[in-house]
Structures are given as structure tokens and as C-alpha cells.
Amino acid sequence: MNDLTKQAILNNGVLLVSENTDAPCNRVFIYRQFRFFFTINGPPYSPVDLTDSNADGVPNYIIHILQKLLVAYTLLVEALGFRDLLTGGIFHAQGVQYIDIYLNDIAVERGLASATVYNSMPDILSGTAFNGKSLKLTLHRGLPNSSVTPIHELIHLFQFSYVPFNNMWFMEGLARWGQRLMQTGSPKMETLPATPVELETLFKKWHDAEFFWNRLATLCRIEDQFNLPASLVDCELAINTKCTDGIFMRVFLQQCENNVAQMLIDQNSRDLPSHGNWNREEKRSANNNRFILKAILETISIIAPPPHPELNRFVSLITPLVNNDTDCFADPAIQQLMRVLKKFGLGKVCVSPKSILYSDYFDVSSATLSIQALDFTGQTLSNTDLATFSVVRNIIGNLKISDNSTLTSLSGLDNLESIEGDLTITQSGIKHINGLNMLERVKGKIDINHNPELTTINGVTSLDTVDTLITITHNAALNTINGFNSLRQINKGALTIGHCTQLASVNGFCNLIQVKNIELNHLNITQAYFLNKLFKEHPYFNGYIKITSCKLDNLDCFRYLKRVNSSFYLHHNKLTNLKGLENLEQIGASFSLSSNNLNDISQLYGLQKINGMLGIAYNNLETLNGLENLQELKTINWNGKDRSIAINDNKNLIDISALSSLTVANKLVIYIDSYKKYKIKPALLSNFYNNLIEIHDVFLNEIISKNVFIGIKDE
Predict the structure, then answer these.
(1) CA separation for the pair 291, 316 (Å, rounded)
(2) Cα–Cα distance measured from residue 349 to residue 332, given in angstroms and rounded to the nearest whole number
(3) Which residues contact 129 (CB under 8 A, 6 or more apart)?
(4) Is the dihedral of CA 629, 632, 635, 637 positive or negative?
(5) Quick one: which of 255, 257, 256, 264 has its CA closest to 282?
(6) Which H or E run includes 333?
(7) Which DSSP letter does residue 696 get?
(8) What is the pLDDT of residues 279-308, one digit of tens each?
(9) Rounded to whole angstroms, how far apart are CA atoms 650 and 432?
(10) Phi, psi of 66, rounded to the nearest 5 degrees
(11) 11 Cα distance to chain centroid
């Protein structure tokens, strides 16, 4: 019997529904070892597509994803011999009984896998037989039918069950290999590394390390195809039965697991817990690479594939690297670094029998320092001390330079290529950031704040990606930012530049095309043209834009902008008109233009909806022409008061007829100057008066009734 068809899953699964619950997910569909939590009440925990062909309360999307996971799990365990997550290995030892699936609007990744074992007991499972410890997968709620993300994330769980390693070339490259089980066509490959430089390049890869694993596994293939388990014969999904590389991968993961035990002995200074719950920096340590390479060599030896020149060259390249030899630390420059680390109590520096200083936290071959907190806060870190870091090309962990007033230069970091953590520079004596020009990626955030001597940031010219956010704030002397000119992506957070009151020139960040939010405040800038490429790439901008308390008098950077899905603040600037906003159609939260010098807002003629309040108070407007097509506003609490629109303190404003089409869902709360001053108001039969209106006369400091407002107009 085939029990992995969609119909079989529907027929044999269990749907639990709890409509009266405060939990975000009020439904769970359970089949075998999977519990799929969801709702049909909309984002973020429901499928984008709620089509339910059988009208049984389980959207087609849920069954489609669940079937993919079930088929992939069966392939890995029954066809390729991977260890069942729930009957062996570390997760079994911790009592895991289920794999939970959740949906969400994941910002960057399309799926997330967690190695944490959860022991939560959701109310919806109360009193049922389906309680138990679980692992967790989170998937984007709108994956296309062709997506292989579910198997990608499932592969991660299998990897975690064997080893705690999270080196990206291993973790992401291998998961991409696993996707081939449910993809047809020939895999993309690249020649195996033959030189140290090529090997180091591999170690820096993420998803595209797949091409290495595809090639390695193919060269080690010993069978043409595997037999399909009986339960999958008619499962309706494409299965690549020629993807027999899984035999290599199974043996390889077993050898990796064996080598973790050896690692605990060889690198005992790292204090690695045997249960596998290592901290993030240890999981990604470059020192893990040696043991991964060792597992590769052992797997090749066990499988004994046919000889191949390319494979032989690769074996010759990595064989010397698996030995535990501290002589590689003998280089004088590395010894200087070790002395500085020892001085500041970092890296647990040891002394070899040959009197060579070494650290299990530094990998010589890749020049990678893996320390959770490389923190120099309050230390007497000198320029000479930092110069010893010239031998470091990669840091896995956070680098924090704080309260180091004697440090005036970052030149020791000029060879740094990546930071798998945060970079913080605060309260230093640095005057210029002209270096860091080899830095290509920062996995965490960049925070440059409270550096009183800092005047220019012209470096960081090769940085392509920052994963979380960039904050440059409270640098009182900073006047120019020309750096960051190769940066394309800030994946999860904001670009924030604030409280740098001398900053008049920002020409860096000009290639930025991905960022969640923009916040500029208390700067001396008159324009933000460096954001032009961002809004050209994203005319429908998903986050908020807040440029406030600057000297902005030019909005040309927004000329491509059509929609802002959150707040749009431009208050406290020097704007006289809104040229540049001609294409703006909709704003997802409040729109604040108050406290400028505006005498013309006619450029807003395309604006139709604001899902928040509109603030245009404290300007020089005579008319509201430009708002004729604005149809919707929303009343919100702003600074402790309900507001829909604020037009007060425009001393020359006499014509507000452009508000004729305006409506709100509940009550229109409008702040005005004296009700007597407006000579031209919305027509009596217009939409404006169909609202329940609360009119605040700022001049009289009282609420004026609609009838009084209308009566004044009729005089």
C-alpha cells in the first residue's frame, strides 16, 4: 500500500482544530512523525494560498509541503541508509518524537532548521496522544510548488544529528546537494580544489559549495542508482533515483561524527561540550575544517572509488592539513599575534613542547580567528597591538573595540576579509576609517558610535553584505562618508545614521539595493542621493523610511518610489516642495511632513492611501493642492493624541478643498488652525463630511463641531 500519496496522507492524518485559542496557530495536522502547525486566518502563520480542494480544513499547500518532507525523509533513511533522527543519534538520546513544521514570513531565508530540542506542550495538543519533544522547521508560507526548500531544511536536521558543525561550506553546500534527490537534470559541478588558495576559497563559500560536494560525491560514486522504497513507487513526486551520492554522504557524516570525539581530545582547550550544544562560534570555527577534511579522507578510503587524477590531487592537497602540528604557528608574525592574544587573555594561548605559542582558536591555513567575543573594551589596546592582526583574514565571532581612546588607527585590520559576527567601534581615538578595504562580509551588525575624533569614513570599500544592520551614530566630528561604496545588501535590519551633526556629505552606500529600513536623523545633509539605486531597485519599499531633523531640501533620491509599506517620515527638514515624490501612490503607516518650509505639495497628486496619519503641520502652505486623489487615512495615536491629519500652523493656508475625497474607517480627527481662516473648504456633498469628524482648533484650543465648521463656510 502506498501511504505517501497526497490522498493517503489526508486520509490517515489527524487534524486538530481549536478555534477558541490565543495561540498563533489554531490548527495542527499530524501524520507519522510530523506535526504541521498553522492557521487559516492570514499572515504570518497561514499559507499564502489557502485553496482547500477537499474542503476538509487542510489547505492543499500544507499537504504538498508535508508530502515532500515525508518522501525526502523516506529516501534518506530507507534508500540511502541515513540514521533515522527519531531512533538513533543525539536527538533520539534527548527523547525527540516529532518534527514540527511552522509557517512564517521569513525575511531573507526561505526556511530555517533548528538543532534545539523543544519540550513545549501546545494547548491544542492537550489531552491527546500527540505530545512529545520535537525538532522544529520553519518554512516560508508562500513557497512555490517546485521549491526544494523543505528537503534542504530537512537535510540540516540530519547534519545536526551527526555533528554540531555549522561551517557554511559544509552546512549549506551539503544541504544543497541533498536537494538533488527531488530534482531532475545533471548537477552543476566544479573541479575539486588543487591548490591552497582554491581550498581557502571553498571554505568561504556558502550555498555554492554545492558544486564541490556534487563533484566529490560523483567521483566517489560506486553505484548507478538506488532502489525506490515501495511506499514511494506512486508518490506523485519526482525522485532522482540516480542520486546515489547519498551513500558517500552517509559514510561521510558517520566519519564526521567519529571525528568529533577525537576533536574533544585534540583541541581540549576549546572546552567543547560532548552533548553537541556548542556555541555559535565553535560550531562555525575554522578549526572544524581539519576534522571535516579528515572525514572526507576516511570516507574515500572506506568507499575505495575508482582512481581519478582530479580526486588524487585533492587527496594530496588535504592530507597534510589533517595532522595536529603546532609547528605551523612558528612564523614570527603569528607568534606576535599569539603574544597579543595572551596579553589580553583571549584565545587560550598555549605553549607547545617546542616553546611555540599556539591557540586552538586560530586556524593557520585559513588565517581564521574563532573567538566568541574578541572584546577589547577598556583595554590598553595600542596601534602596535592591533597591527599584529595583519595575519588574520577571517574572524568568527564578535570584534569589539570599545573605550580605547589611545587607539588611533585600524590599519592592523587591513587584511581582514570576513567577520562572522558583529563589528563594534565605539569610544575610540580613531580619526579616520580609511582601511578595512579587504572586508567583504559581516555576518552580524556594524556599529560605529561615540567616536569623538572620527571625521571621515572613506574605507570599507569591498564590503558586499551585512546580515543584520549598520548603525553610525553620535560621532560628533564626522563630516564625510564616502566608504561602504560596494555594499549591496543589509539583509535583516536598518541602515541608521544619526546624531552626527557635522555630517554633510554621504556619497557612500551608493550601491545599496537591499535593506529593511532606512533611518537618518540629526545630520547636516541636504540630499540623500546615495539612496537612489535602492529605490530604483525597490520602488515598492517594504520597510520604513525616516529622514528627520536633517537639512534635506531635495527629494530627488525618491523619484522611483511608488510605495512605502511602513512609516515615511520627512519632518524637521528644509523642504520647500516635494519634487521627487511624483510617483508615490501608497504608504503603509504614517506620513510625516511637518516642520519643513513647504509651500507646495502638488507633487503628491498620485498619492491615494495612507495607512496611518498625515502630518503637514508647521509649514508655509497656502493650499493643499496635491491631495485631491488621497482617499484613505487612518486615525492613530501620535504623541498621546488621536490624529488622522494635522494641517495646523500653516499661517497662510486658506484652501483645504483638496481633502474632499478623504475617508477614514472610524473617526476623522483633524488638527487645524482657527476654523475662521479657511476660505475654501471641501464641498458640502463631498466624502469629507461623510466621516464622523472631530476637529481640533489649535488656535482656540478646543474641539469644533462639524456644524460650526460647515456653518462658517456658508457665511
Answers:
(1) 16
(2) 15
(3) none
(4) negative
(5) 264
(6) helix 332-343
(7) E
(8) 888 898 888 999 999 999 999 999 999 999
(9) 44
(10) -65, -40
(11) 38
Sequence-ordered list of residues with C-beta below 8 angstroms from that of 699, at least 6 positions apart, any chain: 673, 674
253 φ, ψ (degrees, to nearest 5): -65, -35
CA distance 152 to 570: 43
Strands (DSSP E) found in 93-169? 96-104, 111-118, 133-140
Please state, in angstroms and rounded to a whole number, the distance separating the CA atoms of residues 574 and 526: 8
SS3 state of residue 369: strand
Beta bridge partners of 667: 692
- Cα atoms found within 13 Å of the Cα of residue 409, Cβ hemisphere only: 12
User: How far apart, in whole angstroms, are the C-alpha atoms of residue 178 and residue 155?
Assistant: 6
The DSSP annotation for 47-87 comes to -S----TT-SS--HHHHHHHHHHHHHHHIIIIIS-PPPTTT
Domain covering 526-715 in this structure, CATH number: 3.80.10
> What is the number of alpha carbons within 13 Å of residue 161 lying toward its C-beta?
24
- The amino acid at residue 319 is T
CATH 3.80.10 positions along the chain are 526-715
Q: What is the pTM of this model?
A: 0.85
Phi, psi of 93 (to 5 degrees): -65, -25
Q: What is the per-residue pLDDT for 108?
A: 65
Residue 119's region, left for phi above 0, alpha for psi from -120 to 50, else beta, is alpha
Amino acid at position 77, single letter: V
Give the 3-state secondary structure of 443-485. Answer: CCCEEEECCCCCCEECCCCCCCEECCCEEEECCCCCCEECCCC
Give mean pLDDT, residues 334-362: 94
Exposed, middle or buried by CB within 10 Å (0-12, 13-18, 19+), for 185? exposed
- Report the chain's mean pLDDT, rounded to a whole number: 92
Cβ(235)–Cβ(67) below 8 Å:
yes
Q: Is the dihedral of CA 162, 165, 171, 177 positive or negative?
A: negative
- Rounded to 5°, the CA angle 582-551-632 comes to 35
Residue 340 near residue 379, CB atoms below 8 Å: no
| DSSP structural state of residue 680 | B
Q: Tell me: pLDDT of 597 over 80.
A: yes
Task: Look at residues 91, 172, 180, 98 and name the one whose alpha carbon lies nearest to residue 132.
Answer: 98
- In single-letter form, the type of residue at position 579 comes to K
* Closest listed residue to residue 674, CA positions, set 710, 624, 709: 709
Query: 42-73 pLDDT, tens per residue?
Result: 889 999 999 999 889 999 999 999 999 999 99
Is the pLDDT at 618 greater than 50? The verdict is yes
- What's the residue count for the chain? 715
